[in-house]
Design a protein that fits this description.
The complex is a heterodimer of chains A (about 400) and B (about 290). Chain A has about 400 residues and is α/β, with parallel strands linked by helices. Chain A has 13 helices and 16 strands. In chain A, the strands form 3 sheets. In chain A, strands 7, 8, 9, 10, 11, 12, 13, 14 and 15 form a 9-stranded mixed β-sheet that branches. The relative contact order of chain A is 0.14. Chain B has one domain. Classes of the chains: A alpha/beta (about 400), B mainly alpha (about 290).
């Protein structure tokens, strides 16, 4: 009798067989790898640059002779900013294309659609976006910054400059909600206070009432976690009411879709951001990397920050794992990555933390100033702290959960 | 007291914004009965025409009030000639064609303009109401919406072309029999609706920003507003915008933004359940 369990086991086994066979493949046969990005639809502002960065990494790997003497053959799918397609394409990549790794995804909802699928089908998944943190899954690596990396630094910086009464504006889905929990926790720990908290569905673009409430509350600083085109309307309305001259603004998301070159300086100057990458970083690696990126993609891409750039890192980290493992077989690559592989890149070194499968990264505090981000502070190799240190994949490799702050 | 005044002005602004994004559709869908799924993209093109010409050094007001409507009006002329006219009477084909046009315009804007075109900051300063500040541009949006609605009303009510347009919408054959050129009138009305959409896109651009995919933010609310307005497109759209803007923003202010969004949809559903032909299907039937 075919029960659900035997069916799933059969499915998993059938996916595992070719993966095992992939090890001793012919020397010149391409390695199939999978990518899913939001190349069209409302999230294309993120997805197109994510793919540009990923494509650069894949081309660089292939131009230097490929991996294990084999070129990468990338199967690219456009999710059209629709989580339903993530479901379909993740299954296709694992079952039909039989890829060695899947990278991509932007929103937390898209990640949580494909992560369980790829875990079940034993296909490695690397997620390269800043997110709310807490995923603890051996089949999953995250190169993006999580609140554990930046919230503390951001609130300290705010406390030193302006004060500890914070008003939080966030996108109304798991990313914004959980990030806001982190902020509440960190603010309490630093002796501060979240004096207001509002969540906005992704298609809200009227912020008049909120701006009045902020004026009534008079916080020391406003921290926003806005996502998507509708929320961009906030900045114009904030500036129109003269608030950008009155109350300082911080953001963990500003810059992800080239806002810095698209929005007038008189609207966005002074917004404080935190991230692992800005084009203005003076690392020698960054200058060479940017020149190469522009040589291949021209200069019409907008402005890069750490959301798209991590897709370059993600592919480079995985490639390094394959080189050290000497195979593309999943368990060997995971074991190699867990030795704490590090790659240097345009934003400084990125190093895997074996316990959480997240990364140590340089983190920079910056300020929007006349179409560029001016770097204010640099913090080297910030560890990917997770809430109360719950996740440890070295001790409990079978964990498959997502931790959230206890508050 | 100050708060009540400020919140009242925000509510007015929300109503005006909703009416402004819907007025072009009120003409195209409400009067011509053409389902234009590319309506949001017409607003987007208007926004880009504004920021591109303002960025090129054109006077801000010329760019906003003349160039943007003219560009989208021309786009509307082409669309009417090449697409709408060919598919006249075939609702499904029109929906599919305008939806395709919407995708095409988003893709075109993303490819040609990408994510690097700088926007325009809201002009004017702020005014102080007690301890609150409010952008003067908020009043400008309210004022221009009122002007547009009044001008449109006056034109339809009292001008000879307005009469011809109304006559053709009511009974095209009879109007044609009396010598009106229905094809030209339809074409002209479509161009007018497009130009109004271009104007709306430009007026809202300093507050909302311009992005290739911004149209999606507008299109659903515009359709809900025009459909709920009912048979007499102009009055209906203005009333529906007032109803939805007030209820949803008041709910958002008293509760949370997500509740505001829910209230807008609930009010629309209840309204259409009770008045299936829209507000002006029952009330104000003699209006325009």
């Amino acid at each position: 009798m075919l029960t659900r369990r035997t069916f799933l086991e059969g499915l998993a086994a059938s996916a595992a067989v070719p993966a095992l066979g992939a090890g001793p493949a012919h020397a010149s046969e391409p390695i199939p790898v999978g990518a899913i990005y939001d190349l069209s639809g409302p999230l294309q502002g993120f997805g197109q640059n994510q793919w540009r960065c990923a494509e650069l990494a894949i081309e660089q790997i292939n131009e230097s002779g490929g991996l294990l003497g084999r070129p990468l053959d990338v199967k690219l799918y456009d999710s059209q900013s629709d989580t339903q397609f993530y479901n379909q394409f993740a299954n296709q990549l694992a079952l039909r294309d039989r890829v060695a790794v899947v990278q991509g995804g932007l929103t937390s909802s898209s990640r949580e659609v494909i992560r369980p699928i790829l875990r079940r089908l034993e296909t490695l998944y690397v997620y390269n976006t800043n997110y709310e943190g807490g995923v603890c899954d051996r089949n999953f690596f995250a190169t993006g910054a999580t609140p554990g990396i930046y919230v503390d630094l951001l609130l300290r910086a705010a406390g030193e400059r302006w004060g500890k009464r914070v008003y939080v504006l966030a996108a109304d889905y798991n990313y914004g909600q959980i990030s806001a929990q982190w902020i509440r926790q960190a603010a309490l720990a630093l002796g501060g206070e979240v004096v207001g908290e509002e969540f906005f569905p992704l298609d809200v673009n009227q912020f008049g009432a909120t701006i009045s409430r902020i004026q009534a509350e008079e916080p020391d600083v406003v921290l926003n976690i806005f996502v998507g085109p509708a929320h961009e309307a906030f900045y114009g309305q904030w500036a129109s009411a003269g608030m950008n001259q009155r109350i300082p603004m911080m953001s963990t998301t500003f810059g992800g879709t080239s806002e810095i070159v698209r929005m007038p300086p008189e609207v966005v100057n002074g917004i404080m951001v935190i991230g692992s990458y800005y084009e203005s970083l003076d690392y020698p690696f960054n200058q060479a990397w940017l020149a190469e990126f522009r040589r291949r993609h021209g200069t019409d891409y907008g402005y890069l920050t750490d959301v798209p750039i991590k897709d370059w890192y993600g592919w480079m980290l995985w490639a390094e794992g394959v080189r050290q493992a000497g195979t593309t077989e999943r368990d060997a690559v995971i074991a190699a990555l867990e030795t704490g592989i590090s790659v240097d890149g345009p934003g400084g070194p990125l190093t895997i933390d074996a316990r959480t499968h997240h990364c140590f990264m340089n983190t920079h505090l910056a300020e929007a100033r006349d179409g560029e981000f001016r770097i204010l502070e640099r913090h080297q190799n910030v560890p990917p702290t997770n809430s109360a240190d719950q996740c440890d994949l070295q001790v409990r490799p079978d964990t498959d959960t997502m931790y959230t702050p206890d508050i | 007291m100050d708060l009540a005044l400020v919140v009242g002005l925000h509510l007015l602004h929300a109503v005006a914004s909703l009416a402004l994004i819907s007025v072009g559709l009120a003409v195209i869908f409400g009067m011509l009965r053409v389902i234009n799924f590319a309506h949001g993209e017409f607003l987007m093109v208007g926004g880009y025409a504004f920021v591109l010409s303002a960025g090129a050094g054109v006077n801000l007001w010329l760019a906003m009030l003349v160039i943007a409507p003219a560009v989208v009006g021309m786009l509307g002329y082409l669309v009417e000639r090449l697409v709408i006219r060919q598919l006249r009477g075939d609702v499904i084909a029109t929906i599919l064609a305008t939806w395709g046009l919407s995708l095409f315009l988003v893709g075109l804007a993303a490819t040609v303009l990408g994510y690097r075109q700088q926007g325009v900051a809201p002009p004017f300063g702020t005014i102080q109401i007690g301890s609150y500040t409010l952008g003067v541009y908020t009043f400008f949006v309210i004022g221009i919406t009122v002007l547009v609605l009044l001008a449109l009303f006056a034109w339809l009510r009292w001008s000879r072309t307005g009469l011809l347009v109304r006559g053709t919408m009511q009974d095209a054959e009879l109007a044609a029999g009396l010598g009106a050129d229905a094809g030209r009138i339809r074409s002209g009305t479509f161009v007018l609706g497009s130009a109004l959409s271009g104007l709306a896109g430009a007026v809202l651009a300093p507050l909302a920003g311009v992005l290739p995919e911004i149209g999606a933010t507008y299109v659903v609310k515009a359709f809900i507003t025009v459909i709920s307005g009912g048979a007499t497109a102009l009055t209906g759209t203005a009333l529906a915008a007032a109803l939805f803007g007030l209820t949803s923003q008041a709910a958002a202010f008293l509760s949370r933004p997500v509740v505001g969004e829910v209230v807008l949809l609930v009010v629309a559903i209840v309204l259409l359940r009770m008045l299936p032909t829209g507000i002006t299907g029952r009330y104000f039937r003699k209006a325009l």
